[in-house]
Automatic annotation (TrEMBL):
It comes from the Eukaryota. Residues 4-41 form the MULE transposase domain. This is Protein FAR1-RELATED SEQUENCE. Its main location: nucleus. Belongs to the FHY3/FAR1 family. It comes from Aegilops tauschii subsp. strangulata (Goatgrass). GO terms for cellular component: nucleus. Pfam families: MULE. It is found in: Nucleus. Keywords: Metal-binding, Nucleus, Zinc, Zinc-finger. Putative transcription activator involved in regulating light control of development. GO terms for molecular function: zinc ion binding. GO terms for biological process: regulation of DNA-templated transcription.
């Protein structure tokens, strides 16, 4: 990596050691926190407040996903915290203090190619963990990785054959459906 161009932006989880290492190794790279990790932590820390259909959950999701300006975000968060009596909530205080690292309004001047999450790599990591035990030797890792690829290819082939044999089911039998 020495001499190679540094990325403009990098998304990381909330690991402080990683943050410090990136600041040291890539001083001109902007790093932001993965929104998926922030939301995962929110579920752990806010639990029942984020229950299905709760008013707080709707307000929290609006704040996280739809606020565009910094003022709108800060006012929305303050209003939500006040409305629900959460002024002393440690998690909400922490996410407010670190808002520049993860909140959408603070990403406006940072090129991220519309990415705000490392979820894709996290899901690949989760899939791989199902095949390769921790601490595996390299030859076992390679063998299990090949097995994972074979299983995924087999499933994809099966689904393609099933689709071809089953034919196309049209909902309305309209020309646009036939064309698609």
């Amino acid at each position: 990596m020495i001499g190679a161009p540094q990325p403009r932006t990098i998304l990381i989880d909330q690991a402080r050691a990683m943050e410090v290492a990136i600041e040291d190794a890539m001083p001109h790279t902007t790093h932001r926190w993965c929104k998926w990790h922030v939301l995962k932590k929110a579920k752990e820390c806010l639990g029942p407040l984020l229950g299905k259909g709760s008013e707080f959950k709707q307000e929290f999701n609006k704040m996280v996903h739809h606020m565009v300006s910094e003022k709108e975000f800060e006012d929305g968060l303050a209003c939500m915290v006040q409305k629900h009596g959460l002024q002393n909530n440690v998690f909400l205080t922490q996410i407010y203090e670190t808002r520049m690292k993860w909140a959408k309004p603070y990403f406006m001047d940072v090129f991220c190619a519309k990415m705000t999450s490392t979820q894709r790599s996290e899901s690949a990591n989760h899939l791989l963990k199902g095949y390769v035990p921790p601490g595996s030797l390299m030859h076992l890792f390679v063998r299990q990785y090949e097995k994972m690829q074979f299983d995924r290819d087999s499933e994809e082939s099966y689904q393609e054959k099933r689709t071809k044999l089953g034919g196309v089911v049209l909902a309305q039998n309209l020309p646009i459906e036939i064309h698609a």
